[in-house]
Amino acid sequence: MAESTAPAAQDRRPDAPLADDDVNVWLDDVHVTYRIYEDRALRLLDLARGKRRRFREIQAVRGIDLVARRGETIGIVGRNGSGKSTLLQALSGLLPVDAGEVYARSQPTLLGVGTALQPNLSGRRNVELGCLALGMNGREVDDAIPRVLAFAGVQDFGDLPLRAYSSGMRARLLFAIATTVIPDILVIDEALAVGDEEFRDKSRNRIKELREGAGTVFLVSHALDTILDTCTRVLWLHDGQLRADGDPGQVVDQYKADVEDRRRRAAGG
Ligand SMILES: Nc1ncnc2c1ncn2[C@@H]1O[C@H](COP(=O)(O)OP(=O)(O)OP(=O)(O)O)[C@@H](O)[C@H]1O
């Protein structure tokens, strides 16, 4: 059973936890289901025969309750397909929920490996567009460009199109853009894992600054060392549900023990 910091049942009013100034995000019994239509050829055949389209439902997130406070860096661990990315997208407002509610004090900034940068535009231009999207004015953008390129370590590549960057360089630039303005709520999906060791240290420090700036950071990663180094609290997601929520060391140990157990059982031991 997860030790959840979810609000008590009698507090389930829309604004109950948000009345507390320290609460940045509140997930109230959130469910997300994907509906996937089967093979296109079969679908056309079904339509021709007047049958209804066949689909499968995948309940990726099943009833998550969570209260996230300022100053928390919340790691999310779990095996492949356990619903981590889906939860981050729902939390960031990019995916509709089927049931439950997501409350956030401000728009979360989602930083993921797949987040869009424009491959045919230069690094400089991508920084410019990113900073404008974050609400900076022209002068702030001009100031930010060299700083962001330098933080990402791509100052010598500023004029080259992004397609000439390695995937690590792109991830570094994305991280640098998203963290120029300190967001209240930063959501990171594996992005740290892409940078090299030196950049991981820089991004870890940057996350610490964000946390000290009283923001809330969510971080999904399979790199448990990064989770332990960075997070103040860890959630373990399993089959779309919370298995544990609490102290990073304890939750990561429980998760590792479960992985080991599964490995032994799979090996027939
Ligand atoms: N766009 C999608 N359409 C349909 N099903 C999806 C989609 N994205 C994810 N799923 C399904 O939802 C479930 C949760 O996937 P999700 O990507 O959230 O897991 P995850 O824990 O982030 O996995 P990983 O560690 O592999 O990145 C999986 O069963 C997956 O097959």
Commentary on this structure:
The chain has a six-stranded mixed β-sheet, with helices on both faces. Strands 2-1-4 form a three-stranded antiparallel β-sheet. Helix 4 (138-152) packs across helix 5. It contains eight helices and nine strands. It has 269 residues and is of the alpha/beta class. The chain has helices spanning 40-48, 84-91, 123-133, 138-152, 167-178, 197-212, 224-230, 248-266, and strands at residues 23-37, 55-69, 73-77, 99-104, 109-112, 185-189, 216-220, 233-238, 241-246. Adenosine-5'-triphosphate binds next to strand 1, strand 2 and helix 2. InterPro entries: AAA+_ATPase, ABC_transporter-like_ATP-bd, ABC_transporter-like_CS, ABC_transpr_TagH-like, Bact_Polysacc_Export_ATP-bd, P-loop_NTPase. Residues 42-264 form the ABC transporter domain.
Question: How are the elements arranged and paired?
Answer:
Blueprint: E1 23-37, H1 40-48, E2 55-69, E3 73-77, H2 84-91, E4 99-104, E5 109-112, H3 123-133, H4 138-152, H5 167-178, E6 185-189, H6 197-212, E7 216-220, H7 224-230, E8 233-238, E9 241-246, H8 248-266
Parallel strand pairs: 3-7, 3-8, 5-6, 6-7
Antiparallel strand pairs: 1-2, 1-4, 8-9
Helix pairs in contact: 3-4, 3-5, 4-5
